[in-house]
């Protein structure tokens, strides 16, 4: 690496107000953009979160959660802060629209009992990204899993083979795939997989062969790249699962999702994002095999399971 910045915050960011954004953001994205804009306005007026908390007679924690979209916005709070921050009538109307949009239900709310709370922000945002890069060290990414492979992963994790717990989680995974890949202009996707994903048998040999053939199909899709990190390559990351998401100019800021055993961290501060994006670039350019060599690795693995 040459030390250059790999993510960049423009000196004059694209204005966040505008009708295009109003009509295209989902509730989660609307809440993030709302919080980002309120924070920018507060900082532009050189106000602390403590000062803003006093304006709405609330705690600093509430202001922080509003700006980070970690709790539903209060319309009254948004109105007071917008006025105190000097927003004009059009800007206040836009902020109100974002707040109302953020309070609307998400498409996956019906699966809320079957999706980890710490993963729901990723589920909401992944299909709205313009660029999505994921790294997986253990299993095929959920967005690329076949029904049989996904069913085995879910069943093994829950230690049950059937019932609502499995079926609803499987339905959620399939809906995520549909929303990501079957939209008119899907995100540009790059998937970096450790070679051990090909060696770790999930379910039967037939299940594995079917899953690997599916990966081959995905790799042939326009805008989708799949690369494998060979076991012989250098160790660049000890993370098991992470994803970098970039959005259109009027959408949320870029973020990196890092998954733990039973939680996840979302990085949105430019320096935090930059460090992790650089790590993913190293995985892609230093550790991962080329697209052509990755395809050969995948074809060889398919043969092993088809014997």
List keywords for this structure.
307 residues; alpha/beta; 434 Repressor (Amino-terminal Domain); Endonuclease, Chain A; 2 domains; 11% strand; elongated; disordered N terminus
Overall pLDDT score: 90
Distance between the amino and carboxyl termini: 42 Å
Element pattern in H and E: HHHHHHHEHHEHHEEEEHH
- Radius of gyration from CA coordinates: 21 Å
CATH architect. name of the largest domain: 2-Layer Sandwich
Structural domain tally: 2
Helix percent band: 40-55%
Largest sheet: 6 strands, mixed
The name of the CATH topology of the largest domain is: Endonuclease, Chain A
Write the layout of secondary structure elements.
Layout: H1 19-24, H2 27-44, H3 49-55, H4 60-67, H5 75-84, H6 89-102, H7 120-125, E1 131-136, H8 147-158, H9 164-181, E2 188-194, H10 196-199, H11 205-219, E3 224-229, E4 241-246, E5 255-259, E6 264-267, H12 270-287, H13 291-306
Parallel strand pairs: 1-2, 2-3
Antiparallel strand pairs: 1-4, 4-5, 5-6
Q: Could you explain how this protein is built, in words?
A:
The protein has 307 residues and is of the alpha/beta class. The protein folds into 2 domains: 19-102, 434 Repressor (Amino-terminal Domain) (Orthogonal Bundle), CATH 1.10.260.40; 113-141 and 183-306, Endonuclease Chain A (Endonuclease, Chain A), CATH 3.30.870. Helix content is 50%, strand content 11%. The chain has helices at 19-24, 27-44, 49-55, 60-67, 75-84, 89-102, 120-125, 147-158, 164-181, 196-199, 205-219, 270-287, 291-306; strands at residues 131-136, 188-194, 224-229, 241-246, 255-259, 264-267. It has a 6-stranded mixed β-sheet, sandwiched between helices. A hairpin with an 8-residue loop joins strand 4 and strand 5 (255-259). Helix 3 (49-55) packs across helix 4, helix 8 (147-158) crosses helix 9 and helix 11 (205-219) packs antiparallel against helix 13 (291-306). The longest helix has 18 residues, at 27-44. The protein is elongated.
């Amino acid at each position: 690496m040459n030390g250059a910045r790999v993510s960049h915050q423009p000196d004059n960011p694209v204005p966040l107000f505008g009708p295009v954004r109003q009509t295209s953001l989902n509730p989660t994205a609307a809440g993030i953009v709302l919080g980002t804009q309120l924070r920018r306005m507060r900082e532009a007026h050189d106000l602390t979160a403590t000062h803003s908390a006093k304006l709405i007679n609330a705690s600093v924690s509430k202001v922080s959660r509003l700006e980070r979209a970690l709790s539903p916005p209060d319309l009254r709070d948004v109105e007071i802060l917008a006025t105190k921050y000097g927003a004009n009538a059009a800007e206040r109307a836009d902020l109100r629209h974002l707040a109302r949009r953020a309070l609307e239900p998400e498409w996956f709310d019906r699966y809320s009992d079957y999706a980890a709370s710490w993963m729901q922000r990723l589920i909401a945002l992944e299909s709205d990204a313009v660029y999505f890069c994921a790294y997986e060290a253990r299993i095929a990414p959920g967005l690329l899993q076949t029904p049989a492979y996904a069913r085995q992963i879910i069943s093994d994790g829950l230690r049950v083979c059937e019932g609502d717990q499995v079926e609803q989680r499987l339905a959620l995974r399939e809906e995520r795939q549909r929303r990501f890949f079957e939209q008119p202009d899907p995100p540009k996707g790059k998937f970096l997989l450790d070679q051990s994903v090909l060696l770790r048998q999930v379910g039967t040999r037939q299940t594995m062969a079917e899953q690997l053939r599916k990966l081959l199909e995905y790799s042939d899709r326009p805008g989708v790249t799949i690369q494998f990190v060979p076991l012989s390559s250098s160790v660049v990351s000890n993370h098991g699962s992470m994803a970098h998401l970039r959005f259109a100019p009027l959408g949320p800021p870029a973020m990196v999702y890092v998954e733990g055993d039973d939680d996840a961290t979302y990085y949105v501060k430019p320096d935090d994002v930059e460090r992790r994006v650089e790590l993913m670039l190293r995985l892609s350019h230093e550790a991962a095999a080329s697209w052509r060599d990755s395809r050969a690795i995948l074809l060889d693995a398919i043969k092993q399971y088809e014997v």
